[in-house]
Amino acid sequence: MFRGKFKHNLDAKGRFALPSKFREVLRVKYGSEALVVTNYPDCLVAYPWEEWKKIEEKLLKLPWEMPEVREYLRYFLGSAEECQPDRQGRLLLPQSLREEIGLEKEVVLLGMLNHFEIWNPRDLEEKFKQTKQNFAQLMKVINPYLTGVQEKPAAI
Known about the structure:
6 helices; six-stranded antiparallel β-sheet; alpha+beta
């Protein structure tokens, strides 16, 4: 699983070194270092190819006639790029994706279990400040899922 936070510099071509822990997860768990990278509004997300295929299968089941579904898919899939680390373990982020979240000289990678996020360091710092302030509320929402004790929805 992808865990941890790693800060890396981008080179002039827009490459950064994947952490050895992440490369090991890709090789051992997934048998390949192939990734699909796309954007969320705040960051980029990188999925191992196997996890990406699961997402695509779910997306195919969405009601495509709904404008909201098409809008979501345009944003999420329209920027998706297959990326493969080079022999030195560097991942090239396409310029369009770097521009989308304002990456210049540094990136921060956050392990998210079955994928990882790629952040602009300034944006992540701000997001962490907000999260810290709202942590008690987040725990109220998350704790029932962690403990297995979820309230049933109120009857209408």
